[in-house]
Design brief:
Layout lengths: L1 H18 L2 E11 L3 E3 L4 E11 L7 E7 L2 E8 L3 E6 L8 E9 L2 E4 L3 E6 L5 E4 L3 E3 L3 E7 L7 E9 L5 E9 L4 E7 L6 E12 L2 E4 L3 E2 L3 E4 L6 E5 L4 E2 L3 E7 L11 E6 L2 E6 L4 E7 L6 E8 L4 E8 L1 E2 L6 E4 L3 E3 L3 E7 L7 E6 L2 E4 L3 E5 L6 E9 L2 E4 L3 E6 L6 E4 L5 E2 L4 E6 L7 E7 L2 E8 L5 E5 L5 E8 L7 E2 L3 E3 L1 E2 L5 E5 L3 E3 L4 E7 L6 E7 L7 E5 L3 E6 L8 E8 L9 E2 L3 E6 L2 H40 L6 E2 L5 E2 L48 H6 L1 H16 L5
Parallel strand pairs: 2-9, 11-19, 21-28, 30-37, 39-47, 49-56
Antiparallel strand pairs: 1-3, 3-6, 4-5, 4-7, 7-8, 7-9, 10-12, 12-15, 13-14, 13-16, 16-17, 16-18, 16-19, 20-22, 22-25, 23-24, 23-26, 26-27, 29-31, 31-34, 32-33, 32-35, 35-36, 35-37, 38-40, 40-43, 41-42, 41-44, 44-45, 44-46, 48-50, 50-53, 51-52, 51-54, 54-55, 54-56, 57-58
């Protein structure tokens, strides 16, 4: 029934709200008594709202309270003022406040109001004990129950008598309003108390409380201050047994005994961890004079007291002296020991732990075995005193130093060579000086008879010498000269020629040269694109020459050379520059060839011309002979040969006979005989040269006449 009625009421209210009109005119917040209050005062937040409506009933609205934008109260109300009371405001209540009114779908918010709570309540201080022994621990709890964290606490330990703050510690509690700290009670603190104050950050301000004092804490001694007792009392003479005691009183509350330490200066001479006394016993000597300190210590407490002990000297400390501290081997060594005051009963002189004399003096001829530290011990009764120390050095003369280096490996220019200097005999330390060309290169001191090693990087052959000296009075010793041969590698190779243009038949001279390299040097001459050298030679010279006396075209091309010695490994063999050599013919040879060519051309021309004119002469001769009556020709034997019976008479026209023979060719076997005016000329070809035949005009004239006569008579040539 009630749920139904409530649903009906809400429905009616909703319908009514839909029918009526509402508006929020104004909203504000009032903080009472003020926006700044003291810690512990009551504070009220009032949210006032002014609403206008068409309804006769006040509308119900929601009021929301916020602190630092965090909602802390949500209430529904029909009142125009809604209040929220903060009883006994604390620092953590400081902040910015605002309120919001929600009416249906309308929302309105006040401005933000800053509230500041001043002051912090006095903190509470609680102790775990009110009586403690020295070195004990007191636990202090400091809290501010009314506040919330974070809280910063400052706790101080104060001496009641002097009001002096002995220690001070700070600690923050981010989530709680209390802290607990432990304080250790130190020595000489009798009555103490603790005071605490709390600090809280509020907005932009730090609020701090007043100091709150704790109850008084009484401190009991765990042990008393140490006391010295020296026996025997009064003046103490050397040789008398002496006892120094340090005692303390331990409280019944102490759980462990402290450690007792007796020191002379800074040296611990006695100590005890059990009991209340520590004792130092010794036979008194002047060395026992001085200030003694007794320290009594636990993990936290330390107490100190001091006493001065005076011992009367029976006799003075012996003094050992020598004729000299540095002697040459064979010199006289003399030591003596003396005291002042009472005369000592016995003396001993020692070298190290070995006794060399049981008297106050010692002497002998010095040897190297006498070098060492000497002391003297003098005694009266049971009192023995040790003298100062005297260091004696007996110098053995140095042997002539030898100088050497590792000669098994060759020294290459730029590489390091180790030169050793060594005197086998002689007292160390030995100073060695290495000389190079009379100049001191380096000095070394060796504390044994081992060789001194010097390092150098010679660039050329060098002479080294070594000088050595030690504590002996004689002058320094000098070694022999050491010659070190330095192999200079081939660093540069150059190929040169007097003239790159060489006349045929002249000589070609190639010079392969290197820098200051050590011999023997292997030179190799190459022609470009050839794998094998055409000339190879090994010399102790910085240049090698290859030449040929008769240059020809075959020697044309590009040349280079290589050079290497023992310092150049296979991959590091250097190659020279490349030279191009050209071979040309001599002018006279060129002229000779030109002359020969011209002569050959002329000879060919002459031969051709001769053949040409011979043929031409034969052609002229044949018509003339054919125009003659048959006349027997004389052979070489002067025999007549008839033309009719000659076999050549029947040969066709144009037949050429051998040179030097007559030939007749019929022009026309049926032609009529020539007229009587025609002159017949007998031409002897064998006696006439072609050049001469060309010069005769009559022959040409006759030949011309014959050619003219033929057409007129209707005859063919």
């Amino acid at each position: 029934m009630w749920p139904g009625a409530l649903l009906t009421l809400l429905l009616c209210s909703s319908l009514e709200a839909q029918e009526n009109s509402f508006t929020i005119n104004n909203i504000n917040m009032v903080i009472l008594p003020d926006q700044e209050v003291q810690n512990g005062e009551n504070m009220t937040l009032q949210c006032n709202v002014d609403i206008s409506t068409t309804s006769h009933v006040r509308p119900q609205h929601r009021v929301l309270f916020y602190k630092d934008d965090v909602l802390f109260r949500n209430v529904s109300s029909t009142e125009m003022t809604e209040s929220y009371i903060i009883p006994q405001a604390r620092v953590y209540d400081s902040g910015t406040y605002k309120c919001t009114v929600v009416l249906n779908n309308k929302v309105k918010t006040t401005p933000e109001y800053e509230v500041l709570v001043r002051g912090v309540p006095p903190p509470r201080v609680m102790l775990d004990k009110k009586e403690v022994i020295e070195g004990g621990v007191v636990m202090i709890n400091c809290s501010v129950p009314e506040e919330k964290g974070p809280v910063h606490f400052t706790i101080e330990k104060v001496n009641l008598e002097t009001r002096e703050v002995k220690s001070k510690r700070k600690k923050s509690s981010p989530n709680q309003n209390s802290v607990t700290l432990a304080f250790t009670v130190e020595e000489q603190e009798r009555v103490i108390y603790f005071q605490c104050k709390a600090s809280i950050i509020s907005l932009r301000h730090m609020e701090t409380s007043e100091n709150t004092k704790s109850d008084m804490v009484t401190v009991r001694e765990s042990f008393s201050s140490p006391k010295f007792y020296v026996y025997p009392e009064g003046p103490i003479l050397e040789g008398t047994p002496m006892h120094i005691n340090c005692t303390i009183q331990v409280a019944h509350m102490a759980t462990v005994f402290p450690e007792i330490i007796i020191q002379k200066d800074k040296a611990i001479v006695a100590h005890s961890r059990q009991g209340n006394v520590a004792t130092y016993s010794a036979m008194a000597t002047v060395e026992h004079n001085g200030n003694y300190t007794c320290k009594v210590e636990t993990s936290q407490i330390s107490k100190v007291s001091s006493i001065v002990v005076n011992i009367t000297e029976l006799f003075s400390k012996p003094k050992l002296e020598s004729s000299a501290t540095r002697l040459d081997q064979g010199d006289s060594l003399h030591l003596w020991c003396a005291t002042s005051g009472a005369t000592a009963d016995n003396f001993t002189i020692q070298k190290g732990e070995m006794i060399v004399s049981q008297s106050s003096s010692f002497g002998k001829r010095a040897s190297v075995w006498d070098s060492g530290i000497y002391t003297c011990v003098a005694g009266i009764g049971k009192v023995f005193k040790k003298s100062n120390t005297v260091r004696i050095t007996v110098c053995e003369m140095l042997s002539k130093p030898r100088i050497f280096y590792d000669s098994k490996s060759e020294v290459i220019k730029g590489q390091t060579v180790e030169v050793n200097c060594q005197s086998i005999n002689g007292t160390s330390p030995i100073s060695y000086h290495l000389l190079k060309a009379s100049d001191t290169l380096e000095s070394r001191t060796v504390n044994s008879n081992e060789p001194a090693v010097f390092r150098d990087n010679p660039t050329e052959d060098a002479e080294y010498q070594c000088k050595a000296n030690n504590c002996h009075s004689n002058s320094e010793m000098t070694s022999e000269l050491l010659l070190v041969k330095v192999i200079a590698p081939v660093a540069e190779v150059k190929l040169s020629i007097l003239n790159k243009m060489v006349e045929s038949g002249e000589e070609i001279v190639l010079r392969c040269s290197v820098n200051k390299a050590s011999g023997p040097i292997t030179y190799k001459f190459y022609k470009e694109k050839e794998v094998r050298p055409f000339h190879e030679v090994t010399l102790n010279d910085t240049q090698a020459i290859w030449f040929t006396t008769q240059a020809s075209v075959k020697q044309e091309g590009q040349y280079y050379c290589t050079a290497s010695n023992r310092a150049n490994l296979a991959p590091n063999i250097l190659k020279s520059n490349i030279l191009t050599v050209k071979v040309f013919l001599a002018p006279w040879k060129k002229g000779l060839i030109a002359v020969v060519v011209i002569v050959v051309i002329i000879a060919l021309l002459v031969l051709g011309a001769r053949c040409y004119f011979r043929k031409k002469a034969k052609a002229k001769q044949m018509p003339v002979e054919m125009s003659r009556p048959a006349v027997p020709l004389l052979t070489s034997n002067n025999e007549k040969v008839l033309s009719d019976s000659s076999p050549e008479a029947n040969r066709p026209y144009g037949y050429n006979d051998d040179i030097g023979n007559h030939a007749t060719k019929p022009i026309n076997e049926n032609k009529e005989p020539l007229t009587l005016d025609v002159e017949y000329t007998e031409v002897e070809v064998n006696s006439l040269e072609p050049q001469e035949g060309l010069g005769r005009k009559g022959t040409e004239t006759v030949y011309s006449e014959i050619r003219k006569a033929n057409p007129e008579n209707g005859r063919l040539p």
